Amino acid sequence: MISRHPSAVIGSGLVASGFLLWMAWPFSTPPPFPANLGNVEVVARLTEVPAGAVFERELYHYATILRYEVITCARGKVLPGDIIYVAHYDPWKPRAAAADAKAPGIGGDVRAFVAGERHHLALAVPLDDHYMGGLVDKYFGRRPALTYWALRTDAD
Amino acid sequence: MLARANGAEAKPLGEDGALPWATWSPDGRQLLTLQPRGFAIVDLATKQVVRSFPRGGFYQQPTWSPDGRAVVGVSNGFDTGWSIARLELATQRANAVSVADCCTPDWSADGERVVFSRRRPHGGENGGYGWTELWQARPDGAEPQLVYAEAGRHLYGGHVSPDGRFVLFTGNLREDGDPAHQGAPMGLVRLADTPMIAEDADLRRAYPQAKSAPVLVLPAGHEPCWTAAEAPGLSR
């Protein structure tokens, strides 16, 4: 019969915990945005970019709805694993160049929306409080009504 | 601003930007306005908000119906970014009138039709943007029908005459309305002549049954509105 010393068990537990923390580290520690930047802050994975959701259009600005899976949440009532729908203004532009009079105060360092990439997002809800304009919604009729407005979109 | 129909006695109704997208109630006693936080109905005499409610995706150009029960406007709540939709004020239920790229909706005087601008799916004309045409439909979206189309000019701001016989509109050569704030020639067509087109091979292919009828070209203007009286001094 083989028995293990309690210190070995504790040591193994510490190693396992450390490993898990190390695994989680890249997902959970982007420098936080200012606390007054929206009312939700998450790291989330862009699950897809539907065909026709992002197109270049100099006139008639629009926002497009993109689908994210939440990885971590720093602020707001969102849980890891939740699917959220986020409106990005003039999504064909780099985030740093997207703000204008219709959508002031948006930004970030993401240059293009690529399916599978992780974004550090500062979001605001409800959308109607923050955006009055055209919307491209490839999930129309197939998603919950709650839509987040992307204020800041950084690569994670 | 509030002014007489001839432009006299213009005066601001509030601070700059205070009553965006204001539209008259049928009795002229209230204004419905549209802001990011929602619709607000303002009593004109007291300037007090008497009712407010969520805008549910409506974002520009609301117009109160002649019977006071509904509003049409541009909405982002119906799949396309620029839909025309009707909102019932009592229930706040909305329905799409047209989900192509649309704008500048208005009511016929009897409330039975909505006239609006609609961008037809196109073959790449105008740098890929196509041209905007005048259309009409019933307020529930039924019976959509072309009113008038031209190649090479956008038609915006359709407004039906009080007797329902004519439609007034703006003809913009450029995109995005009137960017230089100079207006563009207005036009007038008889509804009895519609659906009609300015003769063009592509338009004829798109609308083989359309008539070719006269358009009265009017001076430059932007988003015209017909007065309630047919001529100064006459009752409605």
How is this structure best described in words?
The complex is a heterodimer of chains A (156) and B (236). Chain A has one domain (40-155). Helix content of chain A is 15%, strand content 29%. Chain A has one helix at 6-28, and strands at 40-46, 62-75, 83-89, 118-124, 134-136, 148-155. In chain A, strand 2 (62-75) and strand 3 (83-89) form a beta hairpin. Chain B is mostly beta strands and 236 residues long. Chain B has a single domain, classed as TolB, C-terminal domain (Neuraminidase, 6 Propeller). In chain B, a hairpin with a 5-residue loop joins strand 13 (154-160) and strand 14 (166-172). The longest helix of chain B is centred in the last third of the chain and has 6 residues, at 201-206. Chain B is globular and about 55 Å long. The mean pLDDT of chain B is 89.
Overall number of structural domains of chain B: 1
Biggest sheet descriptor of chain A: 5 strands, mixed, barrel
Mean of pLDDT of chain B:
89
Strand order of the main beta sheet of chain B, please? 9-10-11-12-16
Output the radius of gyration of chain B: 18 Å
The fold-level CATH name of chain B is Neuraminidase
Widest sheet: strand ordering of chain A: 1-2-3-6-4
Annotated CATH homologous superfamily of chain B: TolB, C-terminal domain
Helix content of chain A: 10-25%
Percentage of residues assigned to helices of chain B: under 10%
What's the total helix number of chain B? 1
> Tell me, what's the shape of chain B?
globular
Percentage of β-strand residues of chain B = 35-45%
Q: In total, how many beta strands of chain B?
A: 17
Element order of chain A: H for helix, E for strand: HEEEEEE
Note the beta-strand portion of chain A: 25-35%
Coarse structural class of chain A:
alpha/beta
Task: Please report the two chains with the greatest interface, counting residues with C-beta closer than 8 angstroms to the partner's C-beta.
Answer: A-B, 15 and 21 residues
Distance between the termini of chain A: 49 Å
Order of helices and strands of chain B: EEEEEEEEEEEEEEEEHE
